[in-house]
Amino acid sequence: MPNAIVTGAARGIGLATTKLFLAEGRRVAMIDSDADELARAAGALENVLPIVCDVSDEAQVAAMAGQVAKDFGSVDALVNNAGVADFRPMDQTDLQVWRRVMATNLDGVFLTSQMVIPHMTAGRGAIVNIASISGLRASTLRVAYGTSKAAVIHLTRQQAAELGERGIRANCVAPGPVDTKLALAVHSPEIRAAYHDAIPLNRYGKEDEIAQVIVFLCSEKAGYVTGQTIAADGGFDATGVGLPALRQT
Ligand SMILES: NC(=O)c1ccc[n+]([C@@H]2O[C@H](COP(=O)([O-])OP(=O)(O)OC[C@H]3O[C@@H](n4cnc5c(N)ncnc54)[C@H](O)[C@@H]3O)[C@@H](O)[C@H]2O)c1
Q1: Ranges for the Ketoreductase domain (predicted)?
Q2: Quick one: which of 121, 119, 130, 129 has its CA closest to 160?
Q3: Which end of the chain is less crowded, N or C, counting CB atoms within 10 A of the terminal residue's CB?
């Protein structure tokens, strides 16, 4: 049975991705630092291996990778999805905030990949890292978040460059705004309305719409795709700053 590891799997985009992998017949190692939420999510599912792990903690990630390798044998797909958001002006972003965001969003992707890659299936392994449109386009209030996600996009290219000869692909998904707990915490009603104006599809994305792109990139259908970033964002990145005044509707 093919398998996958999904970090940040207890809710949101990670949980939707887990469910889609399960529906396609994969076993899934569900990784999350929130023990209660993980137990709740995994308790309702079959063919899952839930592991409580903070992806920013080297020892915990090493233990997690060892446990998954023991159980799965080799790992077919790794989805580095765990992330935290913190929106505030640059002058209120102290080193502690910066480090907290980088620890999960960037160090977490680096560490998890380093520990899992030695166990990945040569010839057809796939890594998908979750960045954000905030990593593609600069914006206010997210000096740490946006920079962490831009780094994830480049880390993906580094992985693609080095892992290609082992037949392991690495790609990135950059979601636009999706209604999850993370977005609810940082998107005020004003931000929400403004996003609508700047998105050609004129709505937030759904968790499952992001999961579909992730699962596609992990599949054989994307067998010749590596080093790429796909924005699943309703057209936000393609069109830049929206001009509501120029809209016809
Ligand atoms: N929701 C959006 O609008 C949006 C937009 C662009 C990108 N993203 C990215 O998508 C990914 C998933 O976000 P979401 O919206 O589903 O968020 P979410 O908050 O609903 O879920 C994130 C999950 O990651 C877990 N997590 C956080 N830090 C962790 C750590 N150090 N170790 C292990 N697990 C950890 C949380 O416990 C949670 O279960 C994130 O990387 C986020 O930056 C989200």
Answers
A1: 2-181
A2: 129
A3: C
Q: Which one, of 23, 22, 83, lies nearest residue 49 by Cα?
A: 22
| Catalytic residue status for 224 | no
Give yes or no for a contact between 97 and 86, defined as CB atoms under 8 angstroms apart: yes
Return the amino acid letter for 58.
E
Res. 204: pLDDT tops 60? yes
Identify the three-state secondary structure at position 114: helix
Contact yes or no for 53/33 (Cβ under 8 A): yes
Amino acid making up residue 199 = I
Please name which of 118, 115, 15, 105 lies closest in space to residue 56, comparing C-alpha atoms.
105
- Decide: pTM greater than 0.90: yes
Q: Any idea which architecture 3-237 has in CATH?
A: 3-Layer(aba) Sandwich (3.40)
125 lines ligand 1 (CB under 6 A): no
